[in-house]
Amino acid sequence: MQLVIISGRSGSGKSIALQALEDLGYYAIDNLPAMLLGSLVDELRDQGEQSRLAVSIDARNLPGALEKLPGYSPSCISVISISKLST
Description:
There is one protein chain. The chain is 24% helix and 26% strand. With 87 residues, the protein is an alpha/beta fold. The chain has a single domain (2-82), classed as Rossmann fold. It has a four-stranded parallel sheet with strand order 2-3-1-4, covered by helices on one side. Strand 2 (27-29), helix 2 and strand 3 form a beta-alpha-beta unit. It starts with a strand and ends in a 5-residue tail after the last strand. The model has no long low-confidence stretch (mean pLDDT 75).
């Protein structure tokens, strides 16, 4: 399974980035609570579903979330952090 985690503050464009990944064939979940990430990955892996998963998580929830993915290879996880650009 390939996991892409998109993080950023509200209004930073996480949903737009997630929609682009969905267009590329990723199973996408917007605004997933960080505490559910490990359970989601375990469930999908057990069912053999969705080889490519993308989730957006609010940046305030991210610290420690990856620690709840025991046995998951870091090479399979991509974390994209989005900052809102000032105009």
